[in-house]
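Bumping with the actual sequence this time:
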Amino acid sequence: MDVIGFGALNLDKIYRVDKIPKEDEEGFVKDVEFHPGGSAANTIVGLARLRLKTGYIGKIGNDSEGGFLLEDFERENVNVEGVIKAEGRSGNALIFVDDKGHRAILVDPGVNDTIRFDEIDLDYVSQFKLIHLTSFICKNGLDSFLSQKRLVEKLNIKVSFDPGMIYVERGLDDLKEILEKTTLFMPNKMEIEMLFNEEYRKAAKMAIELGVEVVVVKLGKDGCYIYDGNDEIFVKANEVKAIDTTGAGDAFNAGFIFGYLTNKSLEDCGKLGNLIAGLNIQKVGARAGLPRYEEIEEFL
């Protein structure tokens, strides 16, 4: 087995709007679409489409949304043995996307935050080469976040970690236990600068000093910056027209992790990340534009 994800599972309810309203403003909805989502889940589906053997640790409620999320994983050939079914609501994300592709998100975590460590099958997780961690909103408790910390401590497999702004806002002290065990640290520029209170290149060096093996900073339309303690690598993004940037970072992560696990150079990993992200943002939804292996084979 190759990669197992551990993060929130959400049904993304995407509202295409004329504008994202500010306080006391109104806008109107042009169209509505429902898509399975959750940051780590998006990345795992991206990796499954690239023919890696994938699995997931997450929790869904006993509702139609949970069934929808599970069925989608199965359709994408993601192993669902690690997905826990519980009483309560599955997670939902309300995503508002304007004509320029900008977005605003409201999250209802449901049962996402309630994954206890004793609910995770360590023997199952240990079969994988790498675990990919993303954030839980932690509004219904800290169980899932604490389970992530304990899991990286117990496991002897590689760790990729995309903290998202939710975890960055928890502060560096709260994330150190994960960072010390992290192989690939995958924040965006704003996140790493806020977390370390430094410009991103200096922040990357600080992350390496904490124990991270490779820092991968997503720079949006400017591509990415990679630092492994020795070499600094800038990889420019491909110029594409963005239709919807939802899931762009998750798609980038899939490309980079795929490259890393197939023994590509760090620069080529960055190119693959940019390629997958560039393809993904040309369609609406966090996963709709994630390519299959055959579509990118010529670039490998």
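The tokens above came from a reply further down the thread. The mean pLDDT is 95.
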